[in-house]
Design goal:
- It is a multi-pass membrane protein.
- This is Transport permease protein.
- By secondary structure, the protein is mainly α.
- About 75% of the residues lie in helices and about 0% in strands.
- The protein has helices spanning about 1-10, 10-25, 35-55, 70-95, 100-105, 110-135, 145-175, 175-190, 215-225, 235-255, 260-265.
- Helix 4 packs parallel to helix 7, helix 7 (about 145-175) packs antiparallel against helix 9 (about 215-225) and helix 9 packs across helix 10.
- The model has no long low-confidence stretch (mean pLDDT about 85).
Length: about 260
């Protein structure tokens, strides 16, 4: 594992240049550039706001102002966008770069790092624009809120990268994994309190959300951005631990499957 970390550091120039190229090529010849990172989730926020605001906002404590439901959605879409992008891109990253790995000696650990850093950059852009939206409607996050956001983005990135790398390795040998993950993400979106609050769920079913680490993350973003309260530190510690364990497990799997992956690809 330490060898992989040293290898990634040795190839840091390749990693950062790949991240830069990925970002540049994504918005090449685009007039709005990185704004598209925010426009896509913003369009979803507008759709849900128009369709669900009148139905849900009245039943959500602390979410009753003119813009509160839209702000609630924005806070939830920040971690969801980061998590889903890392997971979806990680699942197919080894297959995507398979022909290159067969021709060039390329440490495989570099690929998920490139995916994670690119997604994290996109998330930082979206988070910054979200904060601007909050300021425009009269909400001013404190310095402590910003520090919490940095920590939450880090935990989300580690958690998503660990799971994404595991699924990416499995997808090389079992291609059905790449078909299943998008379906699971659709269900996970609605099983996570992004467009609704846990408080509107019947009490006998609320305990199930304790088994969804992403629900803990999303509620932490809501607490910091919308309700100006500290997140559940105990819950976040568990999510961070799951992320670290899954990341360590994925590195072990990557090391063991290293040569077999090249042969299969």
């Amino acid at each position: 594992m330490l060898g992989m970390i040293r290898t990634a550091y040795a190839y840091r120039g390749f990693i950062f240049s790949s991240v830069r190229n990925d970002i540049v090529m994504r918005f090449a010849r685009s007039r709005l550039g990185a704004l598209w990172t925010f426009i896509h989730p913003l369009s979803q926020v507008l759709i849900y706001t128009v369709i669900l605001a009148n139905v849900l906002s009245a039943r959500m404590p602390g979410v009753s102002g003119q813009y509160d439901y839209a702000l609630y959605l924005l806070a939830g879409f920040v971690p969801w966008a980061l998590f889903s992008e890392v997971l979806q891109r990680s699942v197919g990253v080894f297959i995507e770069f398979g022909p290159l790995m067969q021709k060039v000696v390329l440490p495989k650990i570099c690929l998920p790092i490139i995916v994670a850093l690119t997604a994290l950059w996109n998330s930082l852009v979206m988070t910054g624009l979200t904060l601007i939206a909050y300021v425009l409607v009269g909400r001013h996050p404190s310095l402590l809120d910003l520090l919490w956001l940095v920590a939450l983005l880090g935990i989300t990135a580690v958690f998503a990268t660990g799971l994404g790398l595991i699924f990416g390795i499995l997808n090389v040998f079992f291609r059905d994994v790449g078909q299943v993950v998008p379906i699971v993400l659709q269900f996970l979106f609605w099983l996570t309190p992004i467009v609704y609050a846990v408080s509107i769920i019947p009490e006998e079913y609320r305990h199930w959300f304790e088994y969804n680490p992403l629900a803990t993350l999303v509620e932490a973003y809501h607490a910091v951005l919308l309700f100006d309260t500290p997140p559940d530190i105990g819950g976040l510690a568990i999510v961070a631990m799951i992320g670290v364990v899954s990341l360590a497990l994925s590195l072990v799997l990557l090391r063991r499957a290293n040569q077999d992956m090249v042969d299969v690809l």
